[in-house]
Each structure stands twice: as C-alpha cells, then as structure tokens.
Amino acid sequence: MPRVSRRSVLLVLPLVASVAPSVSGQDDPGAANRQRLEAMQAALDQAYLLPPSRLGDLGYRIDWQTAVTLSPNATLRGAFPRGDGLYLHDSSNLLTRMNLAKGASVWQSPVGSSTGEMLDVILASPGGEPSVLAVTRTEVDVFDESSGTMRSRQRLEPTAFTAPAPVGNYFIYGTRGGKGRWHQFMIGHPWRGNSLPGAVAAQPVIADGM
Predict the structure, then answer these.
(1) What is the distance between the alpha carbons of residues 41 and 45, in angstroms, rounded to a whole number?
(2) HEC profile of 58-74
C-alpha cells in the first residue's frame, strides 16, 4: 500500500498542533503533553483513509505520502501495485505510474475509452521491451514501462468478463458467453479458447502449469 515518509509526517504535525486544544493551566506538565499528543494523533487518524495508529497495530509504518493528479472531476477507480511501481486508474481512464519507493509520479497516459472499465495491469516484455499492459474489457493498451509511451492497442475478441491471468506471452480471461480465451499479446491476437457452460464469472487461476 502507499506509505508516507517520516519527513512528511514531521511536516504535518506542526499544522495539526496549531488546532490541538489548549491544555495550559494544568498542574501536571506530563499530562498536558500526553493530551496534546493524543489530540494530534486523533487529528491525523481522521485525515487518513487508513489511520496511522491502526497501521501501527497491524505492524505497518508510514514511509511517505503524496497527492495524486487525477483527470478533472475524476475519482480514483483502482490501484495496482506491480514491480517497483504503483499504477493508479481514475474514472476518466487516466493511468498514472508512481514510484513505490518515493511516491513520485513517473508518467500518466489515457487508457481506452472514458467509459471503459480497467480489469488489471500486467508487466511483460513483448519483443524484449519492458512494457505495461493495461487490460480493459474490450482492449489491451501496451505502454513503454519507463516513459508511458503507447506502443500498441490490441482488441479483445470476445470481450473480457473477468480479470486476466498472465502465463508467458499470453493471458487467459473468461467471457460472459462461457468461453475461456487465451490472448497472445506478443502479436495482439487471440490464440485459443474453450467453451464452458454458463458465464465465466471468476478470474482464471494458474496452478502447476494448468
């Protein structure tokens, strides 16, 4: 999950301290300090989706925080941690790659149509070039991993109903019509498929090469 650095926390604390209730006039300076710290902690917990105090209870610590630039009037739809990057997808189908170590934005690129749903992000190296595959229900957009430049756009036939399961140079997905489809992303075409009774509703699972 995204993490916040200690430096970022130190920058936030003075702002919170300014709104902490005054405890002057109390006889016990230690109690006053404890109350002030508790008030600061409560303010931080209210400001975060995952409260810092709860993260500590789970064995996590916050390393960094950052603001994500989304499309105008857009909301965050999904987050996909892959390799050394965090890929964020917003409701206008803008894909942002962030550096997991520092929280810095590396690149942003539009994905598919503004109404499409992104199912997954896959890291692969078609042709030996490190790439990011953004898989929607109808297509696959292939980006250069380092720059975000689009390399190709591949249609999915038929439309995907499940998230894909990557295997080698292809990935497998299920369809509403009950098909399991292998998509060869090296050349951008379907490879093989099987028919099953009813819709395939769950993501395929790869176990022991099967």
Answers:
(1) 6
(2) CCCCCCCCCCCCCCCCC
Confidence of residue 98 (pLDDT cuts 50, 70, 90): very high
Report the Cα–Cα distance between both ends of the chain, in Å, rounded.
Answer: 30
Q: What angle do CA 148, 153, 156 make, to 5 degrees?
A: 130
Query: What pairs with residue 165 in β-bridges?
Result: 172
From residue 37, give the alpha-carbon distance in Å to each of 42, 54, 58: 9, 16, 21
- Rounded to an integer, the average pLDDT of 65-94 is 88
Based on C-alpha coordinates, what's the Rg of the chain? 23
Which residue is it, tokens 């990057």?
85
Backbone phi, then psi, for 46, in 5-degree steps? -75, -25
Which pLDDT tens digit goes with each residue over 3-26? 443 333 333 333 333 344 444 445
CA–CA gap between residue 135 and residue 119 (Å, rounded): 6
| Cα 105 to Cα 127: distance, rounded to the nearest angstrom | 26
SS3 (DSSP) at 204: coil
Residue type for position 30? G
Contact 58, 50 (CB under 8 A): no
For residue 99, the cross-strand partners are 85
Phi then psi for residue 34, to 5 deg, are -65, -40
| Cα gap 30→88, rounded to integer Å | 44
